[in-house]
């Protein structure tokens, strides 16, 4: 670690250089040189009497942690939109403000989700493997055929900011857009997308299905039954949460041809994901990197520091959860 207690802030995870520079310049923050877990972070907070901690997913604050938070601690600032890695309710009940970083991941996540869609449809994993192996073998007209996404029907589950951004990208490919959401959007946000109240009615119409649900409150959404409701040879994309998917059912659907392909950025267990998925040629995989752009990671860190600045100045946090 580097830095001094100064402004009373611990940055308990590695962050981009621009974020680290601001944290030290504005708050004299203590900077971790690795991603801390909850016990390590809280020990530093207690030892130094710090008022705020900037966290990542390894800081899994449980109800047990919340019951014995250091008395100096006022704020836990997550550098992510999601905060299901911690018991936010227990922390708030203990008098500690919890914040997240909404809005800043929208474009980068939608970009990667649409990349997964294209790569799954066009067999990108297989094509790239052929080239890295040296190619040398010609292919005829019926060989290695992908699916053309242009003009297909895209079903979006979860039409928040990221779902809407995904829809906007799909419009550029002439896709018909259906969506399932807890509530229907106003027409100016739908922009021609069709609301389907019952997910089971939308699935048979979705040639491509993309998940954009926040958090894990939906439980396991994609099961043998729901995969079976999709039209045969559908394409499945997930940049939301791995917990939404029964991965045994996903693998069976990919092997049986019920799914033509899948594009996945999230998994039930990370980073120790089910490597059976990597053995399937019709899966395009990325390691939970939807937000991994310079612009977005800087924005995430800055948004967390905006919350720190507000709370330390006695103002309301901009992004309480």
Molecular structure report:
This protein is α/β, with parallel strands linked by helices. The chain has 2 domains: 9-104 and 294-312, NAD(P)-binding Rossmann-like Domain (Rossmann fold, 3-Layer(aba) Sandwich); 106-285, NAD(P)-binding Rossmann-like Domain (Rossmann fold, 3-Layer(aba) Sandwich), CATH 3.40.50.720. It has 12 helices and 12 strands. The chain has helices spanning 17-27, 38-48, 63-66, 88-93, 106-121, 124-132, 161-171, 187-190, 199-202, 224-229, 247-256, 294-312; strands at 9-11, 30-31, 52-55, 75-78, 97-99, 153-157, 176-180, 194-195, 208-211, 234-238, 259-264, 283-285. The strands form 2 sheets. A 7-stranded parallel sheet has the order 8-7-6-9-10-11-12. Strand 1 (9-11), helix 1 (17-27) and strand 2 (30-31) form a beta-alpha-beta unit. Helix 1 packs parallel to helix 12. The radius of gyration is 22 Å and the shape is elongated. The protein starts with 8 loop residues before the first strand and ends in a 9-residue tail after the last helix. Mean pLDDT is 95; it is low at 2-6.
* Gyration radius over CA: 22 Å
Which strand order does the major sheet show?
8-7-6-9-10-11-12
Helix/strand structural class: alpha/beta
The CATH homologous superfamily of the largest domain corresponds to NAD(P)-binding Rossmann-like Domain
Could you please say which CATH topology of the largest domain applies here? Rossmann fold
The CATH class assignment of the largest domain is: Alpha Beta
Domain D-isomer specific 2-hydroxyacid dehydrogenase catalytic: 10-321
GO molecular function: glyoxylate reductase (NADPH) activity; hydroxypyruvate reductase [NAD(P)H] activity; NAD binding
Pfam family, one: 2-Hacid_dh
Domain D-isomer specific 2-hydroxyacid dehydrogenase NAD-binding: 114-290
């Amino acid at each position: 670690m580097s830095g001094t207690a100064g402004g009373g802030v611990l940055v308990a995870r590695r962050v981009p250089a621009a974020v680290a520079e601001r944290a030290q310049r504005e708050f004299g923050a203590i900077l971790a040189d690795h991603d801390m877990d909850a016990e390590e972070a809280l020990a530093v907070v207690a030892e130094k009497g710090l008022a705020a901690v900037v966290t990542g997913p390894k800081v899994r604050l449980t109800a047990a942690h919340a019951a014995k938070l250091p008395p100096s601690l006022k704020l836990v600032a997550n550098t992510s939109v999601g905060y299901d890695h911690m018991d936010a309710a227990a922390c708030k009940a203990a008098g500690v403000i919890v914040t997240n970083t909404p809005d800043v991941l929208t474009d980068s996540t939608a970009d990667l989700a649409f990349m997964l869609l294209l790569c799954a449809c066009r067999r990108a994993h297989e094509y790239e493997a052929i080239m890295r192996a040296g190619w040398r073998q010609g292919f005829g007209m019926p060989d290695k055929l992908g699916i053309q996404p242009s003009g297909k029907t895209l079903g979006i589950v979860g039409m928040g900011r990221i779902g809407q951004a995904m829809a906007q990208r799909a419009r550029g490919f002439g896709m018909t857009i259906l969506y399932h959401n807890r509530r229907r959007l106003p027409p100016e946000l739908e922009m021609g997308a069709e609301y389907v109240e019952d997910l089971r009615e939308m699935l048979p119409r979705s040639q491509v299905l993309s998940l954009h649900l926040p958090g894990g409150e939906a439980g396991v959404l994609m099961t043998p039954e729901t995969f079976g409701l999709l039209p045969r040879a559908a394409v499945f994309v997930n940049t939301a949460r791995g917990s939404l998917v029964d991965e045994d059912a996903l693998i069976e659907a990919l092997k049986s041809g019920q799914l033509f392909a899948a594009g996945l950025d999230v998994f039930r267990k990370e980073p120790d994901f089910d490597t059976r998925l990597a053995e399937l040629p019709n899966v395009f995989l990325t390691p939970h990197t939807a937000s991994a752009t310079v612009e977005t990671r800087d924005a995430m860190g800055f948004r967390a520091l905006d919350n720190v600045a507000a709370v330390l100045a006695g103002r309301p946090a901009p992004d309480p959860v």
